[in-house]
Amino acid sequence: MLFFVFYGGIVFGNLLIVIIVVSDSHLHSPMYFLLANLSLIDLSLSSVTAPKMITDFFSQCKVISFKGCLVQIFLLHFFGGSELVILLAMGFDRYIAICKPLHYTTIMCGNACAGIMAVAWGIGFLHSVSQLAFAVHLPFCGPNEVDSFYCDLPRVIKLACTDTYRLDIMVIANSGVLTVCSFVLLIISYTIILMTIQCRPSDKSSKALSTLTAHITVVLLFFGPCVFIYAWPFLIKSLDKFLAVFYSVITPLLNPIIYTLRNKDMKSAIR
Questions:
Q1: How far apart are CA 113 and CA 141, in angstroms?
Q2: CA separation for the pair 196, 251 (Å, rounded)
Q3: Which residues are within 8 A (CB) of 121 and not within 5 positions of it... i.e. 6 or more apart?
Q4: Distance in angstroms (rounded) separating the CA atoms of residues 4 and 9
Q5: pTM, 2 dp
Q6: Residue 160 in 3-state DSSP?
Q7: φ and ψ at 126, to 5 degrees?
Q8: CB atoms within 10 A of CB 268
Q9: pLDDT tens, 24-72?
Q10: Domains of the chain
Q11: Which of 174, 187, 186 is nearest to 231 (CA)?
């Protein structure tokens, strides 16, 4: 019942952000366009895993078909890869707005925003297909229990009847390196932005700092579990399950709260 309430909050909070951004003309800007797409992806990412998990809590027989497991892997990495690009784009958007404000309207135009979304969905699709290609042709002949509440490639690989060392390296090289490199790029960009804000008068930098704090918090919530799940080879099982819940349930629930409570324009639009 607790996770059912959490999922209800995810659906309500993220849909609320999407509806408000679409309906309020004051929020028709690149930053809020990206925020609405982030909320839509958060909702989709959580919907891949949370409803099945909640159903399994009420069921004695917790079963998923092999095809259903592969669909979960595909959608999980599709939306996860897309969200990664959106977060990078939001960091770039804040960099241009704060460090090069005179060029903002030229760089972050409507075509640029549409191009960013096309790239996000495209990279998400390519990343997901490359991940799924590892799992489709694996020989499964032994245990058939995934030690988690949803299917993900690192867990499914462990069920294969073959030496999976090279496949584990492939997962780290694909998802792990992509996640770590993106996280490092975002940290560098936000560091440059913070240094720029410090050089400005306090009255002009307070709003930018408030928005930036929300962005950094969301980045840490998203990338923290991802780095440990896909790039850290010495993960403890209990921690693995906690991070899986955090990544798929807690983060999509907290993101709308962070953006609405830390953003004056969003609070005004909600009123």
A1: 47
A2: 29
A3: 82
A4: 9
A5: 0.87
A6: coil
A7: -65, -40
A8: 11
A9: 888 888 988 999 999 999 999 999 989 988 888 888 888 888 888 889 9
A10: 2-270 (1.20.1070.10)
A11: 174
